[in-house]
């Protein structure tokens, strides 16, 4: 495994998957945020441009030394940007091309990948799966949503069952299947990998105007009252 700190190295690759193609550039840099937190870090920043004209620059692969894990962040989330840029929404084919290109780089450079962190609205089909799961959950619940950080005794935070419903739906979705297939294609020479979903249970999963609304309002809404910038994690396990 190679660690390159304080240097800049560029890697460029173009990949065509189905009808979609992506050009990827990689830059190896020190990660200043992690260094301030006393963690030696290996970070790779990617820029991607698709045949459709879409461009992405907020893609970072980090090696977290304390956890001894590699995490790929594909899009900014609500904690860093607060807004969703629809230009960053990919089709599932574009997502497949992007992850293929990144995994080709990871394999070539002898790096690793333990998880992928992305947002609800990063892939269009994923957003649809999440909204449908939340609306189905809403039909089974009554009254106002309880999103309190410290609920009364014997009360369940409604954001927990919401997270569970979204997790279950994503576990059986295209994004999970395609991600796991690609990981095994590029990294599964000596091991077989499985993928598990963990969806955020933070209160910011929901738009603030829905915090005091009823589950009926959620069921009838266009987007389930969800923030596109809320995150979920694809954990990659041997």
Please give a quick description of this structure.
The protein is α+β, with helices and mostly antiparallel strands and 238 residues long.
Question: Can you describe this structure?
Answer:
With 238 residues, this protein is α+β, with helices and mostly antiparallel strands. The protein has one domain (10-237). The chain is built from six helices and eight strands, in the order E-E-H-E-E-E-H-E-H-H-H-E-H-E. The protein has helices at 32-36, 92-109, 124-139, 159-171, 174-187, 215-220, and strands at residues 10-17, 20-29, 41-50, 55-64, 69-73, 115-119, 194-199, 231-237. Strands 1-2-3-4-5-6-8-7 form an eight-stranded mixed sheet. A hairpin with a 2-residue loop joins strand 1 (10-17) and strand 2 (20-29). Helix 2 (92-109) packs parallel to helix 5 and helix 3 (124-139) crosses helix 4 (159-171). The longest helix has 18 residues, at 92-109. It is elongated. The two termini are 18 Å apart.
β-strand number:
8
Strand line-up in the sheet with most strands: 1-2-3-4-5-6-8-7
Which class best fits the helix and strand makeup? alpha+beta
Major sheet summary line: 8 strands, mixed
Proportion in helices:
25-40%
**What is Rg?**
19 Å
How much strand content do the residues show? 25-35%
Which spans of ≥5 residues are poorly predicted at pLDDT below 50? 1-10, 77-84
Order of helices and strands: EEHEEEHEHHHEHE
Distance between the termini: 18 Å
How many domains is the backbone divided into?
A: 1
Shape: elongated
């Amino acid at each position: 495994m190679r660690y390159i700190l304080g240097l800049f190295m560029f890697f460029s690759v173009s990949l065509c998957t189905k009808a979609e193609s992506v050009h990827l550039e990689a830059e190896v840099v020190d990660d200043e945020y992690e260094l301030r937190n006393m963690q030696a870090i290996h970070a790779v920043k990617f820029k991607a441009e698709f045949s459709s004209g879409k461009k992405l620059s907020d893609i970072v692969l980090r090696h977290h030394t304390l956890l001894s894990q590699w995490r790929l962040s594909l899009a900014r989330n609500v904690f860093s940007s607060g807004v969703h840029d629809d230009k960053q929404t990919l089709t599932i084919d574009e997502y497949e091309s992007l992850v293929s290109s990144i995994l080709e780089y990871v394999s070539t450079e002898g790096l690793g990948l333990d998880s992928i962190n992305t947002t609800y609205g990063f892939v269009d089909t994923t957003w649809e799966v999440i909204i449908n799961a939340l609306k189905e959950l809403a039909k089974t619940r009554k009254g106002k949503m309880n999103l309190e950080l410290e609920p009364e005794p014997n009360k369940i935070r409604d954001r927990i069952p919401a997270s569970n419903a979204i997790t279950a739906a994503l576990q059986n979705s295209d994004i999970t299947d395609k991600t796991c297939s690609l990981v095994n294609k590029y990294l599964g020479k000596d091991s077989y990998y499985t993928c598990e979903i963990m969806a955020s249970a933070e209160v910011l999963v929901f738009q603030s105007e829905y915090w005091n609304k009823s589950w009926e309002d959620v069921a009838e809404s266009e987007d389930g009252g969800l923030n596109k910038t809320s995150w979920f994690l694809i954990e990659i396990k041997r």
